[in-house]
Amino acid sequence: MAELGLSESKLLGGLTIAVAQRLGGHRMVVEEDHGMRNLRMAQVDDIVVLDYPADVTGPRSINVYRVDVQDFAAVDGMKFKIDPQRLLYSLQWQHNGTPPDLHLQLVRDPATWFDIVGTRLLGALTRHDPQLCARIRSLAGN
Fold first, then answer.
1. All residues at 6 or more sequence positions from 33 whose CB lies less than 8 Å from its CB, including other chains
2. How confident is the model over 85-125, as pLDDT tens digits?
3. How many Å apart are CA 124 and CA 112, to the nearest integer?
4. In the chain, domain spans
């Protein structure tokens, strides 16, 4: 499996956090053990971002999946099943302290998804905040 460089990892982590915070909404999710959890969820085309808050089971994590869009259409986008086999990566907080130490756990080979996921997340953020590209360009120039 290919690895991501430091700059790609930081970019992917930043995009993932921004999508969860800016585009995510609260959803009630039924876990595999049939327990209920209130999570932040964002959907960008066939990319689903699930933000798991810190709780007694551990620190915060954001899991990113690539799903079959037909799963959404079949139930009007209100109820669907996310196959754990479709997990691409997980952004994991190592503790609940500040500032956080983050770990990017790659599950699928990023050579097969990095470009499309990065482009779609950035595109969704740009549509939500048109000034975002200008801010990113100014940061990249420094």
1. none
2. 899 999 999 988 787 889 999 999 999 999 999 999 999 99
3. 20
4. 6-108
Residue 39 CB neighbours (<10 A): 19
Measure CA of the first residue to CA of the last residue in the chain; give whole Å.
Answer: 32
- Show Cβ contacts of residue 42 under 8 Å, excluding neighbours closer than 6 positions: 19, 20, 23, 24, 25, 48, 49, 124
- Locate 20 and state its tokens: 């969860």
Higher pLDDT, 90 or 73: 90
Cα 35 to Cα 28, 31, 43, 114: the distances in Å are 10, 5, 22, 32
pTM for the structure as a whole: 0.85
pLDDT for 67: 85
Radius of gyration of the chain (CA): 15
94 and 101 Cβ atoms separated by less than 8 Å: yes
Per residue in 2-48, pLDDT (tens digit) is 899 998 999 999 999 999 999 999 888 777 776 778 889 999 988 99
Separation CA 32–CA 119 (nearest Å): 30
